[in-house]
């Protein structure tokens, strides 16, 4: 099994689409760092002066009018117009703060989770695409039949291909997350702030991104084996994103905890949130709707992804064991 996995790793490394995929990952990684650097750049002296002038004007206007505006708001307040609203919140006019004007400082602890989360998606897609192509190409060319004459034990062949797909992407995920983390740290240290960094959170997020990258390659290999065509595998993913995540996820909001995308986010980000619309009828006959925010936990996302991957790997193995390769 180890020898077979080593052979599959070498084959995967030698494939042209693998090299093209890695080149694409490198370009996207460089682009993300470039965008981060541009976003972290502080305002020019002229822009800072304009922001300061806007703050001073708004603060002066607030000083001159907020008492009168609050009094008029309370005088004309009608609880029937906004049922359930708090008069103190509605009629409160917050004092402008200088920190709200201009560009906020780039903070490493805020930048890196967002960047790694974004990287997790393109790494997942790259792993899925290359993994699907890696296995599906053998069926399209007929090479899988020749391979089974050399090693007729199908489950060993299946296991080696799945293992190779997952293992190959572990170092790629490690390198990409390390480059993004180090690059973002250097940018924040130069142009912003690195204070308050919790490295255990940063490393934890990076590890989870590496795990989902390997998972994407494994799932791609399984789907490629079942469908036997890379284009069909990509079409299946696109169909799921559009129909299930896009259409059903928007109209059937209560199914959000069972969507792949939400559980993926919950795992990578260590908890995520989603909104559910709650509508009620008022005594006066009106119909009001509010959004209730709910939390999808990391544990839920981890179990969801683990069970999904395990089930698909088992199903793929059963299909490969029983179905004719031609």
Question: What are the main properties of this structure?
Answer:
2 strands; transmembrane; ABC transporter permease; 326 residues; two-stranded antiparallel ribbon; mainly alpha; transmembrane helix; 2 domains; 11 helices; single chain; membrane
List the topology elements:
Elements (H helix, E strand, L loop, with lengths): L1 H13 L1 H25 L4 H31 L11 H4 L17 H34 L1 H8 L3 H38 L7 H29 L2 H22 L8 H9 L3 E10 L5 E10 L1 H25 L4
Antiparallel strand pairs: 1-2
Helix pairs in contact: 1-7, 2-5, 2-7, 5-7, 5-8, 7-8, 7-11, 8-11, 10-11
- How far the N terminus sits from the C terminus, by CA atoms, comes to 24 Å
Helix count equals 11
**Biggest beta sheet attributes:** 2 strands, antiparallel
Q: What proportion strand?
A: 5-15%
Rg over CA atoms: 27 Å
Share in helix: over 70%
Overall geometry = elongated
Helix vs. strand class? mainly alpha
- The structural domain count equals 2
**Which ranges are low-confidence, i.e. pLDDT below 50, for 5 or more consecutive residues?**
none
